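Example S7 (structure tokens).
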């Protein structure tokens, strides 16, 4: 018989926090502000706890600030922001 071992790394190698994006207030009533420090290209998606993508309304206030409204009701949601090769996720509580 022969035996072999393999090292498997699970989890996140590193987490880079960024100040490029902010979401406030959190918790909120379903309407919150999304602000970016620069106007670079990014993708914004919102998911519920089950991973289902949630539709939302985005209203631009100025070049770097937008208001987001989630019509889905109370719960915990995840705002996923993709900018270039970086992906950031922030949990949002709607009460």
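Recovered sequence:
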């Amino acid at each position: 018989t022969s035996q072999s071992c393999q090292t498997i790394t699970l989890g996140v190698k590193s987490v880079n926090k960024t100040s490029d994006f902010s979401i406030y207030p959190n918790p909120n009533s379903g309407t919150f502000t999304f602000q970016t420090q620069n106007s670079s290209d990014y993708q914004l998606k919102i998911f519920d706890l089950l991973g289902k993508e949630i539709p939302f309304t985005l209203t631009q206030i100025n070049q770097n600030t937008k208001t987001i409204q989630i019509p889905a009701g109370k719960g915990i949601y995840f705002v996923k922001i993709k900018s270039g090769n970086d992906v950031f996720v922030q949990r949002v509580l709607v009460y």
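Notes on this example. The two ends are 59 Å apart (CA to CA).
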